[in-house]
Amino acid sequence: MEFKIDQVRLHWIEMPLVHFFETSFGRTYSRKMILVEAVCGGVSGWGEVTCGEHPFYNEEWTEGAWRLLREYIVPATLGKTLGSAAEAGRLTAGMKGHRMARGGMEAACWDLEARLAGVPLWKLIGGGARKEIPCGVSIGIQDSVEQLLGKIRREVEAGYQRIKIKIKPGWDVDVIRAVRREFPSILLMADANSAYTLGDIEHLKRLDEFNLMMIEQPLAHDEIIDHARLQAALSTPICLDECIRTAHHAEQAIRLGACRIVNIKLGRVGGFAEAIRVHDVCAAHGIPVWSGGMLECGVGRAHNIAMATLPNFTLPGDISASRRYWRRDVIDPWVEVTPRGTIEVGAEPGFGYRLDLDFLASVRTREETFSAQ
Question: Residue 166 catalytic?
């Protein structure tokens, strides 16, 4: 349906994590996040910019995304009439990279269209293959193996269907061996966040003994060719994350044999239109996909739930309960996980949750409104 972007509001919010989250990039104690609110006729659609506070996962970071939104993305979008949200990404297609900043606006447009049409977001994007999303958890690097085992035990007892642990040199083989000794039959994967090089092939081959679902992004963020060489040396499937920013990247990686699984992050690929294209390429080649996470608040989490209803999201993703990360979330109700380790998909318009505007205002430290002339 056709709609016009009358107004855009940017909300900068800051929220402490319940527990620190550590990857090979470093340790995070709190999050600074940008929410994009796109308005048409008094109806608001919401998106989240999922980049981190520092340009370590990719080139984007929160302060840079704020400036890009103010100076380029909002001006390119404000006052424009869209035939559908699928056209939103084209308005900023001339900008190189910065897909997370652009994707925050694109996601807001999809949510806006769904709310205007009175339909769930998952239906608008062509999802609905499942009414419950299988959930996994991502557990960061801990201060000790004992602490890690305790966190895994709590998540397994909570019903989560898959455990992902972060690894890096010095926190890998012996740690996974201890986990497997304690939990021999759980679905287990390791995420390296680009911490290794091809010089580590023999070391990484030692992970084959642990019956892992996958090793996620072991090599550099842009090394599709080297991942193909590594995958040929491993029996464990490689899952690509940072390398896949477009459907074309997915096609290249699959053709080269660089991976057997793909993680789709909505922000990393620039929004729903490209996420659907990546999903379709992988499905056509028999490559399963799952939804990755970026420590999102409830807005980004709700978008991930909608995306994960697409048919080729066949593996448990990093979509877990709000309470794992936040003492209070910006949506109402919070995202909850059933004892079966699933999230039930609702039928409410848009991404399916209300904004807790009072709480959002309490954690907002910056706000700017732009109106069409």
Answer: yes
The alpha helices in 8-137, defined as continuous H runs, are: 62-68, 74-77, 99-117, 121-124
Q: What is the dihedral of CA 192, 35, 303, 8, to 10 degrees?
A: -140
CATH class, domain 124-344, is alpha beta
C-alpha 357, offset from chain centre: 23
Catalytic residue among 131, 164, 166, 205: 166
Please state whether the predicted TM-score (pTM) of the whole model is above 0.85: yes
Catalytic (active site) residue 164: no
Class of domain 3-118+357-371: alpha beta
Query: What sign has the CA pseudo-torsion 323, 327, 331, 332?
Result: positive
For the chain, the domains span 3-118+357-371, 124-344
The interaxial angle of helices 145-157 and 173-182, nearest 10 deg, is 40
pLDDT > 80? residue 148: yes
Give the pLDDT score at 2.
Answer: 94
73 to 37, 43, 108, 136, 185: CA distances (angstroms): 13, 20, 12, 33, 47
> At residue 154, what are phi and psi to the nearest 5 degrees?
-65, -40
Burial (CB < 10 A; 0-12, 13-18, 19+), residue 336, is exposed
State which amino acid sits at residue 272.
F
Band of residue 17 on the pLDDT scale cut at 50, 70, 90: very high
Place of tokens 């990360």: 325
Looking at residue 116, its amino acid is: L
